Amino acid sequence: MITEVTDHPDRRRYEVTEDDELVGLTTYRLSEGVIDLDHTEVDPARRGRGLAAVLVGAVLDDARSRGLAVLPHCPYVADFIGGHRADYLHLVPEDRRAQFGLDA
User: Domain 3-96 maps to which CATH number in 3.40.50.10710, 3.30.70.100, 3.40.630.30, 1.10.1060.10?
Assistant: First the structure.
């Protein structure tokens, strides 16, 4: 099975597919230097297989490569960052971390 994550700026979302079938997405709003991640979902029939983690990890890696600050309004994204602080916490502006439960 081939799993891919692709940004679709025209739809303002990243999509995760398995063998070209859409199985999940993360929606966003983009402004100058900031990406606001507001919702993540995975097909209920495919939950429990780590697809949300693959999707969100790819989204955050892309944000880092583009030099974007991240505002994790999506609770799953905020939890993911909290669980992978060494890799992703620096993407969230320090003065906004408490808003997402990511302060010390």
Answer: 3.40.630.30
Report the SS3 class of residue 44.
Answer: helix
Q: Report how far residue 6's alpha carbon sits from residue 16's, in angstroms, rounded to the nearest whole number.
A: 7
Phi-psi sector, 5: left (phi>0), alpha (psi -120 to 50), beta:
beta
* Interval 56-102: pLDDT, tens: 999 999 999 999 999 999 999 999 999 999 999 999 999 999 999 99
Q: What region, left, alpha or beta, does residue 10 occupy, with left being phi > 0 and alpha being psi -120 to 50 degrees?
A: alpha
Using a cut of 0.85, tell me whether the model's pTM lies above it: yes
